[in-house]
Amino acid sequence: MMEEERIENPNREEVILSVKNVSVEFKTYSGIVHALSNVSFDLKQGKFLGIVGESGSGKSTLALSIMSLLPENAVMRGSIYLKGTEYISDAIINNAKKRKARKILEDNLRNIRWKNISMVFQGAMNSFNPVYTIRRQMFEVFKIHTTLNNDEIEKKVEEALRMAGLNISVLDMYPHELSGGMKQRAVIAMALSLDPDIVIADEPTTGLDVITQAEIISQLKKLKENGKIKSLILISHDLGVVSQLADEVMVLYAGRVFEYGEKTTIFKNTANPYTYKLIGSYPSIRNAKKYVEGIPGSLPDPMKISKGCRFADRCYMVRDVCLEKEPELIKVEDNHYSACFYWNSIRKSDKSDIKTEPYHVIQQSSMVEVKDLVKYFDIKESISKALFEREKRFVRAVDDITFTIRKGEILGVVGESGSGKTTLGKTLLGLYSPTSGKIIYSFSNGDVEITPTTSETELMRSSIRKETQMIFQDPYDSLNPKLTVYDIVAEPIIAKRYHKGNEDEDKIYKNPLEILNLVKIALAKASLKPVENYLFRYPHELSGGERQRVATARALVLNSEFIIADEPTSMLDVSIRASFMNMMKEIRSKEGITMVYISHDIASTYYMSDKILVMYLGKAVEMGSAEAIINEPLHPYTKALIKAIPTPFSDWDPSKIDIIGEIGNAINVPKGCRFYNRCIYRQDICKDTPPTAKGTEDHWYFCHFSQDELMAIKNGQASSNS
Questions:
Q1: Closest CA to 389 of 399, 377, 378
Q2: Which residues, at least 6 apart from 240, have a Cβ–Cβ distance to it below 8 Å?
């Protein structure tokens, strides 16, 4: 392929990092994996570059190439320059095969890493050694890369922690004692320890709650404004995060640069159909009820790169030339480049303006009635504590919750990690026995009631095990790797036939041909077609989206009436989340299934749900229609959650989220309002007196104050501060 047009620096700003025609291949037993192909770009001093694309596009491989941390089976071609000096290239690597040259290269790279270029790795939650304190692990950076004494290191470490927004008390804590947000900040502090020229942040907010994510974004913005982070390469699949932090955006697809330009240009005037579809693949909070089409298909096999455009098989604008020739990256305007033959005629796809008007029927009769539901977990104490402690301690995972779900309805459940969402879901299914309260199901074949005295034998004899199913959070862990797709989907049928039920159903469940037919029907409902291509494949042979569809088929195979989906899209690529959510909505409409959709992603919950329940530390703090919760939130916590959702608009400011600190634990909770410690509106009455419900039957919230009173409190704070 011809060398592509070089991405120029029109304003002649100082280039701190220059990547030139970098290609990376991995040698495996199965063949050569083509991870990157002729990637070139310049990172300017003081600029933040966002790199977006689906999993498998080469984003992390590019980061590891810049850090020179590629594994031994990787072959890199091209050159990378730091401040005009070439520090890594295929020639340098080949020369380093000799022992002496290799040592020189390693010494040179050791001086560059952390001092010039540092990295916040993708698995930041697991980046720390669990047996060392934060102090010891941060000291290591200085011990290896500097000649400072312990007192000087102590000062530098404390300074780095303060820059990242942490109290120095965390130095003597172990990683497991830190919350997710604190761990992420500590990793950022470590990356900033030696005042590097460039920080590479690989998915720094993935897996974080919306509040914590907003706090990390706010902290990174402050560090940029203060000059503590000089230049940043931000790798993320979250376009909202990238739009808030990046100055320029590079779009990668199947190892190639598909588009590059200023942030505003990329988001508002894209010149590539892949970028256009990527931006439209996930609902934003401002237009979440519009149809989100996603991107059909998956990335090409990196071991079998065919001729033509790599996006051709998935592109809605594909023409004959796209199948024959690969487009080069060309300049379409100042500081804007695109690899597309038809960059100047990007059009909307056919479904981009369709609204998701519901065509399903929600019945007035209820499917589930939850009354005063409580689920506490005992804390196992030591013998001495058990003898002398006056009160037994509990984890108040679900605490006095009452609500109703109608037949055919999707209830979204949102809140930060630790709010009790998953525990609520498992208690609804009878996987956890409630501490008090009751759950009443109204199935088509009769009612089932779950109370603290309901035994597992009673549940097995009832219809609840057939009529309720769960789609788990992680498709990688919820499927048995030793079973084929057929065996996985057939599992509920085989489990069911060992328990007496309807005689006609029992005959079907014991007939191998009928089982095969039921599995095929479930796979077809989950959009795994043709089903014959999937029946005898194993989980490792499927993509992430296909695995989650298999998990969905398993939940559908018994024609269950009630499904709980626990974070079903959190492990999926942004491009396939939309198609998965559309599939779930279509199944609900066709099959009349009632569903609980648990997520910390409020935009996807808004897209999916008819009603939303907001939880905080085991309490239900607000419930109403999806439109009302998003557009007219009443509880202070809900207001903070909605404000914390990053958007690609300039008016979003993470520093103006009305919330204090991080979520506490569900053990030592406030006597009064559960949200007391973090609420900006709190008054004396909130500390010791539990609030009562306010609002209407269709939209209620638990707070001591009306909306007018909350506004008066806030205005009073503003006037006193001024």
A1: 378
A2: 284, 645, 646, 647, 648
